[in-house]
Amino acid sequence: MVTFFAALLLLVLGYTFYAKFVERTFVIDDDTPTPAYTKRDNLDFVPMSWWKGNLIQLLNIAGLGPIYGAVAGALYGPVAFIWIVVGSIFAGAVHDYFSGMMSLRHGGAQFPTLVGRYLGRPAKTFINGLSLILMILVAAAFTAGPAQLISQITPLSFLVALVIIFSYFLLATVLPVNRIIGRIYPLLGGILLVMAIAVAVAILFSGKPMPNLTVANLHPGDLPVWPLLMVTISCGAISGFHCTQSPIIACTMKKESDGRKIFYGAMIIEGVIALIWAAAGMTFFNGTAGLAEALAAGGPSGVVNEISTSLLGTLGGILAIFGVIILPITTGDTALRSSRMILTDVLAKFYKMDSKVKVLLVTIPVSIPAFLLATIDYTFLWRYVGWTNQVVATVMLWTATLYLLKNFKLHWICGIPAVFMTGVVCMYIFYAPEGLNLDYQLSAIIGFSLTFIVILWYAGQIIKYRSIKQKDAQYNIA
């Protein structure tokens, strides 16, 4: 219990102090009009209050990610608490803040556009494709589960449920952001938070011992923490999916100072939710062995349902069903919305979005493959979501690092987590079963070798921009 409260306190302190440091490094300016006003189109660019933006951002980036991912990550033991805290404060929240604020500074630009501006055209071309693949995978994976549950508790078949969900997706994607998302999602985001708090209170008063972080129980089991934990718990620590969602809210911000509350704040809240569900998974099933058995028997949804109904009774059962159906759907629809916005950026020179029909036509190319993929086993999809997700996060961190370098600001706040995540994704693809499935030591050698090459590139960029800064200083003196 001491470890849990210490981790919770660190997350609060991270927002209180480190978020302000990150904000000062970025340098905000509330006198500059935001794209919500300068580019207002009453579709994507619509001013909204910061608290709505925070709750919508939370729902967009979270869904069931910090619940399912945290429950699966709890198999690694209390070391999961360390990753959630450190990852959220120094990597995930920084990643989300810069992806949102850089989008704001560049007129509501989408993630691939930012990549192209700071990492070059080849990187933009690569990330355009990878981002769309990630959006399609997320929309598919976050739709299959709800459709299956709907088919189990109603007379509707799985296929009919899938058609209904995707019909809603298309509707939410083409309507103005303040119609459905702006009105309903703040309420749903609040329910997600209330659900987590209720589980936390019930666990604390359940009489079950909550595991504390000690050398003996730091990491029970045989699964290697590096790099598997960093991919298993992505939502709740750092997730590349977030940088595809942040521009949606960046287009609605009234002033730049709202960014810390919206982007950094939502990630810290998600970290709190992940912390609660990781603790619940370890505590409720009396350790990682019991949790492993429960996951093998009913999967993450079964574990969440059992914890909720046992601790919260009928209310818990309702919340569990609500969560498994509604929360993934609200992530899937914004995944398709951001896909539409990315495609709009790509086609901007050839295709003007001046009618809802055109908006719908741009949405269909990503909706069809997502619908087809939703009909296969979603656990298979989720394997590939994990690595793709963290590659996107790594690219965003490097984009923010170059932004800071080019503006002669403190680049280490993004550069250090970028190096860390580069090591994660470089090794994971060689070691993971869905990757090349190589020997652990061989995967580590290859992964760290590739990371070292990236570090050399980073060092070269630092030298380059220091030289530019020195030349500028000499020119100004002259």
Automatic annotation (TrEMBL):
Keywords: Cell membrane, Membrane, Transmembrane, Transmembrane helix. It is a multi-pass membrane protein. The chain crosses the membrane at residues 67-94, 126-144, 156-177, 184-205, 225-250, 262-287, 307-331, 359-381, 387-405, 412-430, 442-460. Residues 2-153, 160-276, 288-424 form the CstA N-terminal domain. GO terms for cellular component: plasma membrane. It is found in: Cell membrane. One of its GO terms (biological process) is cellular response to starvation. Its main location: membrane. Belongs to the peptide transporter carbon starvation (CstA) (TC 2.A.114) family. PANTHER family: CARBON STARVATION, INNER MEMBRANE PEPTIDE TRANSPORTER. This is Carbon starvation protein CstA. It comes from Sediminibacillus albus.
